[in-house]
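Now for a specimen:

…
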Amino acid sequence: MNLEHITLTISESVALITLNRPDNLNAFTGRMMSELIDTFDAIDRDDSVRAVVVTGAGRAFCAGADLSAGESTFDFEKHGEDVGVSGARDGGGRVSLAIFQCRKPVIAAINGPAVGVGITMTLPMDIRVVAEDAKIGFVFARRGIVPEACSSWFLPRIVGISKAAELCYTGRVFRAADEAGSGLFNHVVPKDQVLTKALEIAREIADNTSAVSVALSRALLWHGLGEADPQSAHLIDSKCIFWAGRQKDAYEGVQSFLQKRSPEFTMSAWSDLPEFYPWWKEPKV
């Protein structure tokens, strides 16, 4: 797909995705949805990419859904979509799932306003760096709709159920700095430092870690949220560390430490994961 509503650059193992409709505050469109899904799928398969940063062109990150269709914006049937028996698939949710399924760590560089899908699409990203004066809002109740993009699953796990309820029920727009302690953001920084900080974290991952270790860690952390108890987590932790300890990246990690040099990891997050990955899709016994 030729990219029109986003751009992609890859430099020194870090992919930079930029939402690129600056004249429309990077408002979310069907085209943007498709481009993001395809891009994350390609990045997942690209062994040259070790980390991903997502930001917005111009002064906004993403102002939410493009409302140019007017009052019928969220009436999917009216726009010719086949809702079918089980209902239409939410576009923001499809993007969130593409991000969630990616093996690479994803960092949001929220450089400006992020409202509606503009903020919910960042929830499956692993780390959020935000401009301190950025306006943020889970505004769905003020538009007569409901939280989307799988945010009813992600948001309570990030900030807790009570804070998630407050943000969603009020639908208020707030400055990022006002929620600096909520857990929603990892780093709240001046606007001109957002992308620099995000790329710095991505670079630290790309330069110092094993792709396989990060992919498995990402899966353990996210899917561990669905485990019934610590014992269940212990069993899969044990399986992963037993497997990883026998791989060449573990040997290299120890050798590089003992030799006081930078590691040279060679295993692939796409082709070198264990045969039991993805373990969470296996039937529980």
Observations:
- The beta strands are 6-11, 14-19, 51-56, 106-110, 114-115, 127-131, 135-137, 173-175, 187-189.
